[in-house]
Design goal:
heterodimer; A: alpha/beta; Peroxisomal Thiolase, Chain A, domain 1; 36% helix; B: 141 residues; OB fold (Dihydrolipoamide Acetyltransferase, E2P); 5-stranded mixed barrel; 37% strand
Chain lengths: 398, 141
């Protein structure tokens, strides 16, 4: 089977970018990736296929058929192009399809670009749009949202495993600290435990959004784009690229029940565990081999729960590792060195691509010095769709 | 008029609204919400049957009454169409082990507390009211 490498990476800043055009944003990240690979001028000869990850352009930006729009904006006609929608896991799903296209032999080089422009509409509408991925009859119709499901999960998790509000605040503090050193992050302002948890004013600074989740326990609504250029290791096109290739050694996905209440144990995220197991098998690695990870912390509790399902910690113990600083940049297993969804931001379709961008940047040794992981060999990204009902896990290796 | 000549006005009244579990006709497993195939014996459900083209083979069972609170939340950031400050949501488990999500209307909720499931309007829209679960304490009404 052909090996697939990431040979170019591109990113835009994440934030409230509603004054820009979504296709421009995605085009900018795409051209950054092609430029990083050293093939900007030769792009028509290099790129066989484009996959575009996006969740809401049709509804939020009134832009359907977004793959065709992107290809034309960046002068990549006549390559193959399709859009991929898989909720908040659209990004990694598009990368997975890119890997499949290369391994099948249909393509040698694939450009994968994810992007989202959610701030083009009011928060009321964007909340509704994201909630529309829930089960319509049994969840959505009641007014339930993704934060609602995360809050139900968080309350149970805190009760069963003794996780405290302070633990949740610790995750936010760590993520903001990393994001402050990431030039692309949405929230670059550091926060302190005192400000959001341990002072008289903490309730005001960090109010309840979905009890027990507070403002600093939930990711922001972000706009942004990220892009990767993938190529088959055995392709003659490889000679064109200027950066050291990073191998996608494992990529896999798994699904779970649409309704959260249908899970035998609502705290078990089967799709994360199964996707991780499949990715480990493909890569021939185990959790012990992973040097660092980007985990889908749209809600801070997920950093703990996903780390456990991925095999990094025993169930119900990830918060203890957090308290011991094991998941900080200089810890035993750095998690979310980019700032994670919590602070780097979460432009839905871009997120999965951005996570892999961070893996490549760290594996190349190009992350900013203050948040650089020491001598990493393998990085893992977990992109979590719905509330854990469609999860993609990617392992990149140096 | 009286007796057999009386006009029956029943069908002009407000229809009763329920939430139903569906029962697999072959193995008896209950499902909520509905599925198109039983995950135990793989018997299929014909979605056109319930639209009146054929007699439904999967029996419906009203899913209401006593249940137990598994988790809850109070949400302050609601989606388009909800104009209240906050809503409470929860997951419950019925005695037949089926679980459901819905609206919680109980003060001082605690995981494990007994509740009663009722069906009322949970989402008001012009000509499109959605009926669903409201879970409240046993002394409701």
């Amino acid at each position: 089977m052909r090996k697939v490498c990431v040979v170019g990476i591109g990113h835009t800043v994440f934030g409230n970018l509603h004054h820009l055009d979504l296709v421009d944003l995605m085009g900018h990240a795409s051209l950054n990736a092609l430029e990083d690979a050293g093939v900007l001028a030769e792009r028509r000869e290099i790129v066989d296929q484009v996959f575009v990850a996006n969740m809401g352009a049709g509804r939020v930006n009134i832009q359907s058929a977004i793959a065709s729009a992107l290809v034309s904006r960046i002068g990549l006609e006549s390559c193959m192009a399709e859009a991929v929608e898989n909720g908040p896991a659209s990004g990694a799903s598009a990368v997975k399809l890119g890997v499949m296209a290369i391994k099948s032999g249909m393509a040698d080089a694939v450009l994968v670009t994810g992007g989202e422009m959610m701030n083009a509409v009011t928060r009321w509408i964007s909340t509704d749009f994201v909630a529309s991925m829930l089960h319509h009859e049994a969840e959505y119709a009641y007014g339930m949202t993704l934060p609602s499901l995360a809050a139900l999960f968080t309350r149970l998790y805190m009760q069963r495993y003794g996780v405290t509000e302070r633990d949740l605040a610790l995750i936010a503090v760590k993520s903001h600290e990393n994001a402050a050193k990431n030039p692309y992050a949405h929230l670059k302002t550091p926060c302190t435990l005192e400000a959001i948890c341990e002072s008289d004013g903490a309730d005001h600074a960090n109010p309840i959004i979905a009890d027990p989740l507070r403002l600093y326990g939930i990711c922001p609504v972000s706009d942004g784009a990220a892009s990767l250029l993938l190529c088959a290791e055995d392709s003659p096109k490889m000679r064109h690229f200027t950066k050291p290739p990073v191998t996608i050694s494992g990529i896999a996905s798994a699904t779970d029940t649409h309704c959260v209440h249908l899970r035998a144990d609502p705290l078990i995220l089967d799709a994360v565990r199964l996707a991780a197991e499949r990715a480990y098998t493909m890569a021939g690695l185990t959790p012990r081999d992973i040097s660092f990870a980007e985990l889908h912390d749209a809600f801070v509790i997920l950093e703990l729960a996903i780390a456990e399902e991925a095999g990094f910690f025993e169930r119900g113990t990830a918060h203890l590792a957090l308290r011991r600083d094991e998941t900080r940049v200089n810890g035993r297993l750095p998690i979310n060195t980019s700032g994670g969804l919590k602070a780097k931001g979460h432009p839905l379709g871009a997120t999965g691509v951005s996570q892999i961008y961070e893996l490549v940047k760290q594996l190349r040794g190009q992350a900013e010095p203050e948040r650089r992981v020491r001598d990493p060999k393998h990085g893992m990204a977990v992109n979590f769709g719905g509330f854990g009902n469609n999860v993609v896990v990617t392992i990149c290796s140096r | 008029m009286s007796g057999e000549n009386a006009i029956n006005f029943e069908h002009y009244g407000e229809p009763e609204h329920h939430v139903y579990a569906l029962i697999c006709p072959k193995c008896g497993k209950r499902f909520y919400p509905s599925v198109l195939i039983c995950d135990v014996c793989h018997t299929r459900r014909n979605p056109f049957a319930s639209a009146g083209n054929a007699p439904p083979e999967w029996e419906k069972e009203i899913l209401e009454g006593p249940c137990t609170l598994l988790s809850w939340t109070r949400v302050f950031a609601l989606p388009e169409g909800f104009t209240v400050k906050s809503l409470d949501f929860c997951i419950v488990e019925f005695p037949n082990k089926l679980r459901a999500s819905g609206r919680l209307e109980a003060e001082n909720p605690e995981i494990g507390m007994p509740l009663i499931a009722h069906v009322e309007i949970v989402n008001e829209k012009v000509n499109m009211d959605h009926y669903g679960f409201i879970f409240s304490r046993e002394n409701y009404n």
